[in-house]
Specification:
This protein has 1009 residues and is mostly beta strands. The protein folds into six domains: 22-164, Galactose-binding domain-like (Jelly Rolls, Sandwich); 179-277, Immunoglobulin-like (Sandwich), CATH 2.60.40; 282-596, TIM Barrel (Alpha-Beta Barrel); 602-681, Immunoglobulin-like; 688-870, Immunoglobulin-like, CATH 2.60.40; 883-1008, Jelly Rolls, CATH 2.60.120. The chain has eleven helices and 69 strands. The strands form 19 sheets. An eight-stranded parallel β-sheet has the order 29-28-27-26-25-35-31-30, with helices on one face. The protein has a six-stranded antiparallel β-sheet with strand order 3-2-4-10-7-8, with no helix packed on it. A five-stranded antiparallel β-sheet has the order 49-47-51-52-55, with no helix packed on it. A hairpin with a 2-residue loop joins strand 56 and strand 57 (853-862). Helix 3 (317-329) packs across helix 4 and helix 6 (378-393) runs parallel beside helix 7 (413-423). It is globular, with a radius of gyration of 30 Å. The termini are far apart.
Length: 1009
């Protein structure tokens, strides 16, 4: 009898393939409006005039850059605002007896949800997942969801943030008895070569009487390894298993196992969840750093904003996989999502491709940006958000440490560590320079870049450089003179100039028109920085035993923080990445490949097209390679061999080469045999457009994406490295534009609304996403090509062609009509058949016809004052020795403070005036180092001889002292300075001047010496 009962019990634990959990893609067919009206929450509303779209969606990115944009310099001058989303969905009668959750992976920020006009709840934090049980509000048939997203208070972050439902949404339908969301916790308390222990915990919601609970473990190949099925006696079931010969997860071998957790009623599956996990061991040592699976490993990581890259915050999974794989290809083994959690698909991809994740929850634990989460909601919400974060992410094999904050300090830190440890006792806690005394791992940001820190630090706990190094590069731009963001700082490692005098003299903006000394592009020779070069810092990390590793700032360029390094508008993005914001690889990317990858590689810089350079000018030619040695050839003649070294300034092979036109070629050898070669040939003016397509396959709920790359080539197919002509696109069929991006930090063209994007140093990109159920699509590309300045040639070519993207598209009859005298090419255009010549100041206008119908209208102006600025060795002399200038008119102005240009000799784009009224001006300054005293000066002017216009000086909202402003002798042009010494904390600092009842003088800028 006992044997029969056992057989029957085992039989009832056999799984059914008809699991009752349903997860429904909720991304498509939303309605959106960028307005605010309480009536938008109603169940019945005519939204036919609203935009129809699919999420992920980022309305701020779609609106684009605007002078005076709500997010300020930190947000790249993008806007905020209040937007509403609505969606209609059908519910079957049988679903009303179940539990239905609406799950959001990310809504920025202050989201509120209504179902059929019933208010559900609010979630302030924009970077956290959340879900609501909406069961009791549903009805059979048509239902309505409304979502209000409130970004009225700005800036709400120190960098660009998205606005809207920027991450996936799904509807989850389960039985009343089901596995509680985020409750499964898979632990591996012991791992050795022969066996590993696995503990699977869960929480069951609902009645459990007469139910069973089963857990199965599957190998990476999908083979069932073990299972356990028992009567459900508790709402908190916990099973233990033993897995023989566990295969370990690592960046080199990201092996994943799977647990299938089921609730059973007889043979029927009531609920089922699949959870992937991995086996790995992590150990931290103060003297030897980080250990993974018993090996001492250097963390070769990058910091990465969710918004880094070409699409703002609205990432689809195919594009996100492309982004993360691009970083992985550089050789990284770790990533720090800075400074917030990301949607779950990020961690899924990191699990799969092998990236260790320092998972981070907050930027600050109090206000850092004027209206951020730290100010608006942290005190009331941090526990709920930390619980969601850790319980959601803790099963990911990729996550190896929790980070609680960034450049912040508060008495709440010990409580946060304890709270987090109760949710996950298996991992340690750190922060990016926040309360290091309370963390398990000491994280240090920019201060870890200094010679004094590296050579003089005594550590009492394991250390990780959470944000270093900080270096800048503009793809395609070179300088031989070292550039320091804040002038050379004390305690830094030396970074000598490459040549005695500068040899390159082109800029994005004429230095006479710069607003401050930061408005230069940044050199790709790895000689533009805050404190240290990328090469030197890698040497430090590699050779310092206690140094666990680095997270460089950053992987990709990102929108925002445009004033911090680059001086503000027209700059609207941050150029600290190894890839630019279009995803084009910078020279820096290849430096890291040479150090962090083993597959033979070679990369040479700079290009070999220098039409304005005097013949014989000596150019430093660098080659990054992981081969034994490299040989350089100019026009077939060997210039000798060099070997990549281990000392920082020998990591590149280097030759000093007198310039002459021709072919520069580098050949890499291993064991005396050629393994790789690369070359540049001097290019003539651009005359053709090369277009390539990269397809990113659909996955999960996301359709296929495409990256369309355009490059300017000369007639011999050489890249013209200064190409800056506009590329026009006509998109046809079942695809939608996500973005157009070229990496240019000063290009104001809309990335989503325009039909063109200019080449930037010869390249640009179009990002497309398939519409649901797409069948076919193609694009027409067109460009009026030539040297913008007509310096090397005045010959112009017009290139247009059809590019097939998806399905079978009929080829078209394309024709071009153009004018060079200002006439309308539609009515007076000549048929384009061959290249033609133009003179200085000519605007070429053209139209492209497809089968006789106009599909594109184009124009391009050529002349000596067009395009890049070309100067000489004295073009930037006026900025020599200048400190850091922070323009008052770019600050946060309150009360009677207003921006003005009604004076003379002001710096930047204007100044701030009060006109007898009361108000304040607030400056923002980022301190990448440790806390310290800084000498400052406020530039001001007034002519009220008997008034001192006293203003209160605040630092980070703390009163410092009252400053008096003596009369300067004029209201028009007589500017003077009043000094101050302020102790800036590490990280973000706000400096505010506030009137005290006597109004204020003109305030021009804050000058930091």
């Amino acid at each position: 009898m006992k044997r029969l009962l056992l057989i029957l019990f085992l039989f009832t634990c056999v799984s059914s393939f008809n699991a009752q959990r349903k997860e429904i893609n909720f991304n498509n067919n939303w309605y959106f409006i960028l307005e605010d009206n309480p009536s938008f929450s109603k169940e019945k509303l005519d939204a036919s005039s609203w935009a129809n779209l699919n999420v992920p969606h980022d309305w701020s990115f779609e609106k684009g850059v605007r002078k005076g944009g709500d997010q300020g310099q930190g947000g790249g001058y993008h806007d905020g605002g209040i937007g509403w989303y609505r969606k209609y969905f059908n519910v079957k009668k049988e679903s009303l007896s179940k539990i239905t959750y609406i799950n959001f992976d990310g809504v920025y920020m202050n989201s509120e949800v209504w179902i059929n006009g019933n208010y559900i709840a609010k979630r302030p934090y924009g970077y956290i997942s959340f879900r609501y049980d909406i069961s009791k509000y549903l009805k059979e048939g048509k239902n309505t969801i409304a979502v209000r997203v409130d970004n009225a208070l700005e800036p709400s972050a120190r960098w660009y943030h998205p606005c809207g439902i920027y991450a996936p949404v799904k509807l989850i339908e389960v039985n009343k008895t089901h596995i509680q969301p985020n409750s499964i916790f898979i632990k591996t308390p012991s791992i050795n070569k022969n066996k590993a222990k696995v503990v699977v915990d869960a929480v069951v919601n609902g009645a459990i009487k007469k139910l069973k609970y089963e857990v199965k473990l599957f190998s990476p190949e999908g083979k069932e390894l073990t299972n356990n099925c028992e009567k459900l006696e508790s709402s908190n079931p916990s099973y233990q298993f033993e897995v023989k010969n566990p295969q370990l997860w690592s960046p080199e071998s990201p092996i994943l196992y799977k647990a299938v957790t089921q609730i059973l009623k007889g043979k029927k599956v009531i609920d089922e969840i699949e959870t992937r996990f991995g086996f790995k061991t992590v150990k931290w040592e103060t003297k030897t750093g980080f250990w993974l699976n018993g090996e001492n490993v250097k963390l070769k990581g990058v910091c990465e904003h969710w918004e880094g890259g070409p699409v703002g915050g609205a990432w689809t999974k195919p594009l996100l996989r492309w982004k993360l794989q691009s970083l992985k290809d550089m050789g990284i083994n770790a990533i720090r999502p800075s400074h917030n959690p990301t949607p779950p698909m990020f961690y899924d991809i990191c699990d799969e491709i092998g990236l260790l994740v320092m998972d981070e929850i907050f930027d600050g634990w109090h206000k850092k940006a004027p209206q951020d989460y730290g100010k608006q909601a942290f005190d009331q919400w941090w526990k709920r958000d930390v619980k969601e974060w850790i319980t959601r992410d803790r099963n990911h094999a990729s996550i190896f440490v929790w980070s609680l904050g960034n450049e912040t300090h508060s008495d709440v830190a010990p409580e946060m560590v304890e709270f987090g440890r109760n949710l996950d006792p298996t991992r340690l806690f750190t922060s990016g320079a926040g309360n290091p005394e309370d963390m398990d791992i000491q994280g240090v940001n920019g201060g870890s870049e200094t010679k004094s820190f590296i050579e003089g630090k005594t550590l009492e706990k394991p250390f990780i450089s959470t944000e270093a190094p900080h270096t800048w590069q503009t793809r395609g731009y070179y300088r031989t003179q070292t550039w320091w963001r804040d002038n050379e700082l004390p305690g830094t490692y030396p970074l000598p100039n490459l040549t005695e005098k500068e040899i390159f003299f082109y800029e994005g903006i004429n230095p006479k028109n710069w607003r401050n000394r930061k408005q230069s592009f940044n050199s790709s020779y790895d000689n533009a920085t805050v404190r240290v070069s990328a090469r030197k810092y890698w040497e430090v990390v590699r050779d310092t035993p206690w140094h666990s590793g680095q997270f460089r700032w950053t992987g990709f360029d990102y929108y925002g923080e445009a004033g911090l390094v680059h001086g503000g508008l027209p700059f609207n993005l941050f150029m600290g990445g190894a890839l630019d914001v279009a995803g084009f690889k910078k020279d820096l990317f290849h430096f890291y490949r040479s150090q962090w990858t083993t597959k033979p590689m070679i990369h040479m810089l700079p290009h070999w097209t220098h039409p304005r350079m005097k013949k014989g000018t000596v150019i430093p030619v660098w080659v990054y390679s992981n081969a034994d040695e490299v040989e350089l050839f100019l026009n077939g003649k060997s210039l000798g061999k060099d070997k990549p070294g281990t000392i920082w300034n020998e990591m590149q092979c280097e030759w000093m080469v007198p310039y002459q036109e021709g072919k520069l070629e580098a050949v890499a050898y291993i064991n005396g045999k050629e393994v790789k070669r690369t070359s540049f040939s001097t290019s003539a003016q651009p005359s053709t457009l090369k277009t390539t397509i990269e397809k990113l396959d659909a996955e999960d709920s996301f359709t296929t994406s495409y990256i369309i790359t355009s490059e300017s080539l000369d007639k011999n197919d050489n890249l013209y490295p200064y190409g800056e002509n506009k590329v026009y696109y006509n998109i046809q069929g079942d695809v939608k534009t996500i973005s157009m991006e070229n990496g240019n930090p000063i290009d104001p063209t809309s990335r989503t609304k325009s039909n063109f994007r200019a080449l930037f140093f010869g390249k640009t990109r179009l990002f497309l996403r398939e519409q649901p159920n797409a069948k076919k699509a193609s694009i027409i590309t067109a460009s009026i090509l030539g040297d913008k300045a007509l310096y090397s040639s005045n010959v112009i070519t017009i290139d247009t062609r059809q590019v097939n993207v998806l399905g079978d598209n009929q080829s078209s009859d394309l024709s071009i009509y153009y004018t060079v005298n200002g006439d309308n090419p539609i009515s007076k255009g000549m048929l384009y058949t061959n290249e033609f010549e133009v003179s200085d100041g000519t605007t070429v206008k053209a139209v492209v016809k497809q089968n006789g119908k106009i599909i594109l209208e184009m124009n391009e102006t050529f002349g000596k004052n067009e395009g890049l600025f070309w100067g000489d060795e004295h073009s930037k002399d006026m900025w020599i020795g200048r400190g850091v200038n922070i323009s008052a008119e770019e600050g946060i102005l309150k009360g009677g403070a207003k921006a003005s240009r009604d004076a003379r000799r002001y710096k930047g784009s204007g100044f701030v005036r009060f006109d007898g009224m009361e108000g304040s001006v607030e400056f923002y300054q980022e301190n990448d180092g440790e806390e310290g005293d800084y000498s400052m000066r406020f530039r001001y002017m007034h002519n009220n001889k008997n008034k001192l216009h006293p203003m209160k000086l605040y630092l980070n909202d703390e009163y410092i002292r009252t400053i008096e402003f003596k009369a300067t002798g004029g209201w028009e042009k007589e500017w003077k300075f009043v000094p101050a010494i302020l102790r800036l904390k590490s990280g973000a600092n706000s400096i505010r001047l506030e009137t005290t009842g006597q109004s204020g003088p003109y305030i021009d800028e804050l000058f930091i010496d």
